[in-house]
Amino acid sequence: MGAAAGGGWVLWALVALPASVGAVLCVAGVLAGGRQRWAPAAAIAVLALECALAVLVAVQRPSVSVPFLPFADFGLAVDGLAALVVPTVAVVALLVDVFAVADVDVARARFHGLVLLFVAAVVVTATATTLPALLFAWEVMGATSYALIGFSWWQRHRVAAGDTAFLTTRLADLGLYLAVAAALAGGGGLALSDLPSATPGWRDVVAAGVLVAALGKAAQLPFSFWLSRAMEGPSPVSALLHSAAMVAMGGYLLLRVVPLLEATGWAATATAWTGVVTAVLLGAVAVAQRDLKQLLAASTAAQLGFVVLAAGVGSVSGGATHLVAHAATKALLFLAAGAWLSALGTKQLHALRGVARRRRTVGVCATVGALSLAGVAPLSLWASKDEVLAAAAATSGWLYAAGLLAAVLSAAYAGKVLVLIWRHAPAGVEREFDTEEAGDRHVGWLEKAPLVVLAVPAAALGVVALPPVRQALLRMLGEQEAPAPSPVELVVSAVLALLTVAAGWRWGAPEPRWAQHWLGLGRLTAAGVVRPTERIAHLLARFDDAVLDRGVEATAAATLRAARSAARIDRAGVDAAVERAAAAVRRLGGLARRPQTGQLHHYYVQAVAVLAAGVLLLVLVR
Fold it and tell me: E strands along 167-278, which residues?
């Protein structure tokens, strides 16, 4: 059956529990309409147990392996990196699902079932030790994310957004198939730890395939635009997919394969520059946005750029810290945006002016998230960004300068959010908010509680800047040493963040027109991926209708004609001949029966006639 290190059953339970319950909920949603009141409670109970199991595997560090393919096992293991990320995924998923109880009121069984299936796929992705296991989870994660983004299936534009996200990431996912094929050809094995030992030429192909697949999932350039379209999904989906789950898994995969990137000699450099360029350009896109969810989407791609940069410069600790800090911060901000959208019916920044003053709990929590996103000391992303920038500075001064520019842009778009949600709204907008407040569209405790909980790590994870905490993190991740940010670098980044936020408060954030439409990536994605795929699908459908279907119909018609002809031949020829033969036999039988009268003198006459004939025959013969 394979091998299992101590506590292996806990790791299997961590995967099987959400997968099995999620499948049951999805089936129940199809069979019974999906409005079962017990579905959210069941999902929350499973995710609460998932959190406990995640902590348990993080402590026990189990590994399991079972036969899967003739040339590779299905292997899972919890190392230091997975021990940091898996509990983060479980906790964020639980808090998002609690928020979704109040935010999602249709097809609940289906929604919560998809969330559980998605979480199971993310857990397998985070713990996979072989390429087949990774590829299996990667596919399930992509399929469930497509279903979640296009969850409102009755609205065509939301389904179309899911199509764009799915097709774009699927195009990049082909790189992972290429990596599997190249790993087989290269003879290094399909375990992730064996990839650096593949033969040099094939090793480069493996690295290229993994890099493309990871960049696609992480919404890095040139694949970034799918993240904008994914904002059409429900707010809990945005919070889950784009904080600790699918988008984060792209950067996480690159952190897992740092030895492979370094072994090629070029992949690490390409990874670092792709990450930092994405952080800068998508940071400018975020500054230019006037829609809160679009701003957060662009900032997600930009912040994941820091994780990709960390993988490129070999800072696993810096990338992992930033991944976890970003998960808490971005889940908090997306849920706050969802709360305002539910209460006010808008996500346009100009319509949210002063909203934090009227909904204090959500406003204060969102402020913590925005200050963390800006890199204000001593909040979480301040310390994690400087950890990444220190490793970049040790590699290249240009990388450090570009990363510092990306950090300033982070403060600019986070400061833009702060200014708009706290500044007094115009009189007409104030009255509109007062009317909304008097109505029944308020932010309930199910929506507030996850925000309050997420605000704690968004604020507290800055302790990673303390040397004892940093050393403990390095030991957990198995790093011997890593470049540490100097006190001067920490102070410089903190001052830059404060000055940028203050400048935004005083003069407002610029909105560069060239970046407002996501650098034209939407048109390129539609022209290069979505429309060609749809055209190919339509051509194949027409080919199926015009050639395959007609061929089947013609074959069926010819078969019917042949059957009718065979039936006529059977009736007119074979059956008629059999009937004629039978009639002749009946006549002969009638003739044979005539002498059988039963009268003795007839038999004497017949015997005399036979004897006479015999005598005559003898005479004639002789």
Answer: none
* 3-state secondary structure (DSSP) of residue 599: coil
The CA distance from 110 to 39, in Å, is 9
pLDDT at 425: 60
- Tell me the residue type at 411: A
ω into residue 222 within 30 of 0, thus cis? Answer: yes
φ and ψ at 16, to 5 degrees?
-70, -35
pLDDT of 6: 58
Total number of domains constituting the chain = 3
The verdict on whether omega for the bond into residue 378 sits within 30 degrees of 0, i.e. cis, is: yes
Residues 477 and 544 in one domain: no
Task: Identify the domain containing residue 2 by its residue range.
Answer: 1-129
Residue 194 belongs to some domain of the structure: no
What is the identity of the amino acid at 315? S
Q: Which amino acid is residue 388, in one-letter code?
A: V
What distance separates the 2 farthest-apart alpha carbons in the chain?
Answer: 147
CB 225 within 8 Å of CB 168: yes
Could you tell me if residue 425 is inside a domain? Answer: yes
DSSP track, 406-465: HHHHHHHHHHHHHHHHHSPPPHHHHHHHHHHHHSS----HHHHHHHHHHHHHHHHGGGGG
Of the residues 464, 487, 515, the one at which a domain ends: 515
Q: What are phi and psi of 75, to 5 degrees?
A: -115, 135
In a domain, 409, yes or no: yes
Cα–Cα distance for residue pair 463/456, rounded to 1 Å: 12
Query: Within the chain, which residues score under 50 in pLDDT?
Result: 1, 430-440
Read off the pLDDT of residues 186-195 as tens digits, 9 standing for 90 and up. 877 899 999 9
User: Which pLDDT belongs to residue 253?
Assistant: 96
Phi first, then psi, for residue 261 (nearest 5°) are -60, -40
Cβ distance 450 to 95 under 8 Å? Answer: yes
Beta carbons within 10 angstroms of residue 589's beta carbon: 9
Calpha distance 281→165 (Å, rounded) = 20
Q: Where are the beta strands (DSSP E) in 70-159?
A: 72-77
Residue 445 confidence (pLDDT): 82
Whether 100 and 71 have beta carbons less than 8 Å apart is answered as no
CA 386/CA 601 separation, integer angstroms: 133
Q: Could you give the CA distance from residue 222 to residue 198 in angstroms, rounded to a whole number?
A: 28
- Nearest-angstrom CA–CA distance, 158 and 12: 35
Q: Strand 3-4: give its sheet, edge to edge.
A: 3-4, 63-69, 72-77
Q: What is the pLDDT of residue 35?
A: 59
333-346 CB burial, b ≥16 within 10 A, e <16: bbbbbbbbbbbbee
58, amino acid identity: A
Query: Are residues 507 and 600 located together in one domain of the fold?
Result: no
Render pLDDT for 401-450 as a digit per residue (tens, 0 to 9): 999 999 999 999 999 999 999 887 655 554 444 444 433 357 778 888 99
Per the listing, tokens 């749809």 go with 534
- Residue 4's φ and ψ, nearest 5 degrees, are -145, 125
Round the CA-based radius of gyration of the chain to a whole number and report it.
Answer: 36
Question: What burial class does residue 378 get, using C-beta atoms within 10 Å of its C-beta: 0-12 exposed, 13-18 middle, 19+ buried?
Answer: middle
Using CA atoms, how far apart are residues 410 and 394, in angstroms rounded to an integer?
22
Chain centroid to Cα 62, Å, comes to 25
